[in-house]
Amino acid sequence: MLRSVMTGLPAGRLSRGRRERGGHGLGSAPHAAPDGGASGAPVRLPVPSGFATPLGCDAVGLPARHGFRTMAHLSRPGCVFADADWWWWIVPAESDLGLAWPQPARYVSGAYVPTRPRLIHLPEASAPYTPPIPLYLMVCRVAGTAPAWSTVPHQGS
Predict the structure, then answer these.
(1) Does residue 139 surpass a pLDDT of 50?
(2) Which residue has the higher pLDDT, 7 or 129?
(3) Where is this region: Disordered (predicted)?
C-alpha cells in the first residue's frame, strides 16, 4: 500500500473526505457563522453528513506545526480540520473531564473555533471522533509535559 511521505498514512487519506463525501465544508454547517469567523465570532466545525454524534462534539486544536506529527502517531484519528495556523480534532463532548490539556493545545466546547478551517481527514468508522485519551497523550508529548489526571469534576465550567 502506498503511504503518504509526510504522515505515514495511506496516500490520499488526508483529502479523501472532500472527494468521497461530497466536499461538505464549513459553509454547509447549520451553526457556522456566515462570515466564517471574519467578524471574530467563532464558527462551529461541521460534522459531515453520515456521521453519528451521540456523544456531542468538542474540539482540540494544536498549532499547525504539530499537525502532521500528531496525525501520524494517532491510530484512529476522527474528523480533522486545518488551516494555515491550527489543526482541530473532533472529540466527544466533555473530553476535558479530569484532563488538563497543556499548552499549546486549545480545548473548545461545542467545537466552536476562531477561524474557518477545511476538512482534511475523515475516519473510516461511522463516528467522527478521535479517541481523546490517545490524543491527550500525544498533546502532552508535543508539549513536553507529563499527563496530569484529575478527579476535579469539570474544568471547562
Answers:
(1) yes
(2) 129
(3) 1-40
CB 22 within 8 A of CB 13: no
In whole angstroms, how far apart are CA 95 and each of 1, 15, 22, 55, 123?
Answer: 34, 26, 29, 10, 19
Is the previous residue joined to 104 through a cis bond, with omega within 30 degrees of 0? Answer: yes
DSSP reduced 3-state for 61:
strand
| 114: preceding bond cis by omega (within 30 degrees) | no
pTM for the predicted model, two decimal places: 0.73
Task: Give the pairing type, strands 80-82 and 112-113.
Answer: unpaired
The backbone region for 89, taken as left when phi is positive above 0, alpha when psi lies in -120 to 50, beta otherwise, is beta
**Is residue 119 classed as helix, strand or coil in its secondary structure?**
strand
**Cα dihedral sign, 96-100-102-108:** positive
Q: What is the pLDDT of residues 75-117, one digit of tens each?
A: 999 999 999 999 999 999 999 998 889 999 999 999 999 999 9
CB count, 10 Å around CB of 56?
14
Place of cell 499537525: 67
Average of per-residue pLDDT across 3-11: 37
